[in-house]
Design brief:
There is one protein chain. About 75% of the residues lie in helices and about 0% in strands. The protein is mainly alpha-helical and about 350 residues long. The chain is globular, with a radius of gyration of 21 Å.
Length: about 350
Amino acid sequence: MTAQADVGYHARQHARWHWSEIAFWILALACAFLFPSRYLIMTDIVRLGLFALSLDLILGYAGIVSLGHAAFFGVGAYSAGLLALHGVITEPVIALIVAGLVATVLGFLTSFLVIRGADLTRLMVTLGIALLLEALAERFSDITGGTDGLQGIEMAPILHLFAFDMFGKVGFFYSLSVLFLLFLLARRIVHSPFGLSLRAIKNNPLRAAAIGIPVNRRLIAIYTVAAFYAGIAGALFTQTTALASLDVFAFERSADLMLVLVIGGTGYLYGGLIGAVVFRMLQEVFSTITPQYWQFWIGLVLIVIVLVGRARLHRWVLWAPNLIIRQFAGRKAIVAVPESDAS
């Protein structure tokens, strides 16, 4: 077997669906029936998971750090809100796509600034873009509503069939469907030759350029795609809450996103989804127990994760399912460990 064929074989094996992936999505769907009174928080988790997935595409696969990813989230949120408020596009799915495209344009235009310099420069540039957009949104309060946000947003039924309800049931299934479709697209991207070239760029950009990979064009492309995903997440926020305010541009939103990826890990797509679930659950539990000090306990959990190691925690979680599979299948199960943590 030649080296090229061997690489292709391992890439196809790595791209195959693992049993834990199928179980993850079945469990996500089952939550709608297991916790019928928690649709609102589950919808929030889905939105956060999609937002984290967008950052993972650039951080986990291309090595682009960002502290201003909320810029695209906010643009998507305000675009969806303005489209609905002024009756330009009342159908949520179409408005969702348009809002994502608006964020895509912003991502493409700002990508030329982000790809320049080292990590510290990228941090400052992305943070500056988010702060600039927040200032502009506050300056043009006659359009954005200023500190009060957009008032009187009414969303039409999805596909003119499914109207949003006050319990959040329709919003949850709508958000989960969008997340799953975009996850499939992201999975196809990262397992394609384009995704493999991103890994090469992250590991060694100079060597990647030496073997003929157009580094800057690859980084611009993935940064633009990530902006689209973040814009979709922001549009989902507005459509499911009927709210868009200056908070969507806040630095805390980008900071929370980094915490989500610290908890879940980067470079394997599910890190953002798992991190979103854990982060929101911890926030819910700790804010109930100690409303004033919940951030302290989340910080303590992060310290434990760093000291113990995410890969070790991952093996502990999957120990029982793998034991059951070995008993029934008669063979050793393979534990999926994130590449970024295994190295």
